Amino acid sequence: MIQVANNSLKCAPLGLQMLEGQHVSLVRSAPEYLEFIYACYQNDAFMNLYRLAQSRTVSKEDIQKRLEAEQYKLPQELNRIEWVILKHDQDQLVPIGLAALADHQVTHRRAEFLLGIPDTQDRVGNLSLEASLLIFDFAFNKAGLHKVTSFVYGYNAYAQKNTLHLGFKQEGFLAQHIYSKKGFIDLYQNGLLHADF
Question: Pick from 7, 127, 131, 141: CA 20 to 30 A from residue 26's CA?
Fold first, then answer.
């Protein structure tokens, strides 16, 4: 990313900057957020909605090693970027959720959108909407993506309704597409084009 300010040129690798909004900010996942990330991964009810395939048995030490190794890599090297959602609480930034642009396909200029907030109290209001808009602005206006996709588990009708409300269009319904401890699970496939954002 290149910015010009006060007649000086500033360059920074794309995806490392904080995405700042009025009520929330998104910061790249890092070792300083280990406790929060680990707590999210251990929360089965949350992970069953956010990322079903995420291992629940991964140790805190393994997460820390991954975060330490990835903090020196660009999102382009990882083909994904993961954020911690921070709520502005007076003079503090409090972690409340996780978000990502995953499975980045450079040739096709698309990535998969994920966003989740574990605590139901933090889901009230527009915090998730603001976080989503920050990600879409980054994806389309900074990273140059053409399309953002979203996959929603069939048992999560609330998330599917919210996804469509964000402007995504349902592009498919994959019956019994994923197998987990819950059995075979349906999957909604959704897409949001840059032109529709």
Answer: 7
Q: How many CA atoms lie within 13 A of 112 on its CB side?
A: 12
| Cβ–Cβ under 8 Å, residues 145 and 194 | yes
> pLDDT tens across 153-177, in order?
999 999 999 999 999 999 999 999 9
CB atoms within 10 A of CB 29: 22
Q: Which residues contact 194 (CB under 8 A, 6 or more apart)?
A: 140, 145, 146, 147
- DSSP labels, 85-136: EEEEETTEEEEEEEEEEEEEETTTTEEEEEEE---HHHHSSSHHHHHHHHHH
- 31-69 pLDDT, tens digit per residue, is 999 999 999 999 999 999 999 988 888 999 999 999 999
